[in-house]
Amino acid sequence: MDRLAAFQHIAAQASRGELTFPSNVSASIKLQQALNDPDCHSEAAVKLIQADPLLSARAVAIANSVAYNRSGNEITNVRSAVQRLGVRTLQSLVAALIVRQIGSQITDPGLRAKAAQLWQHTAHVAALAQVIARRVTRVDPDTALFAGIVHEVAGFYMLSQAGAYPGIMDGEPEDWVEHGEVAIGRGVFAKLVIPEAVQASVEALWHGMRALPPETLGDTLLLANDLAPIPSPLHERPGATTPQAARTIDFVVGEGTLHDIMAESADEVKSLFAVLML
């Protein structure tokens, strides 16, 4: 099977919902669904997070990050972390866990290296999107963080399947974009029950239609993608700027500029990125 036929085969399977996930992803999806329940109150969320030691540690860490701990009061337990973060930020932490679990079944060293770089890129985009949403576009920052975390989930799924198709990720990256990313992405989003607004923002990223100054969640994600210091190892987005050109992006925001805001928010971005990399 040649590369294009392999992309189309995996994409067709994804479109039909025939997805292959590691066994631990199912448990994480159930946790995500429980947190999505409108009747899930903070005490229930505490019990759900406490049941997973890794999530417990990450919840406390992100609650103590610069982005969420502006008072400087450090907390040391899950209950306080849930109260500070809220359920929606916890959903982002679970989404980050799911994305990394999807990539955990990769054994090929070359593919693992791509997955590691893809997660670094993802963590940068998510951290930048949260700050850009709060300081620039004024869209919901929790939704922006979540969108940043899941925006490359199609790539992680593709890498997790690539071992069965030797050489599929070699060659021109445009082949993956044209013949696999959208169909696979939509299939994975459906399986993970990703909200429609988040799906729409990621599709805006796929098509590369960013406005300056940015206004929407999709614009937020595109700007964060352009500003991320680590690029995706899979492809360059249509219309994406080079790393050098990204540093020159600037525009007026209120009484300041994008450059001013990003300089002021550097510690927040760094702190969020560090937590997501745990």
From TrEMBL:
Name under which the protein is recorded: HDOD domain-containing protein
Xref: Gene3D superfamilies: Hypothetical protein af1432
PROSITE patterns (alphabetical): HDOD (PS51833)
Domain HDOD: 21-208
InterPro entries: HDOD, RNase_Y/CdgJ
Entry-linked Pfam families: HDOD
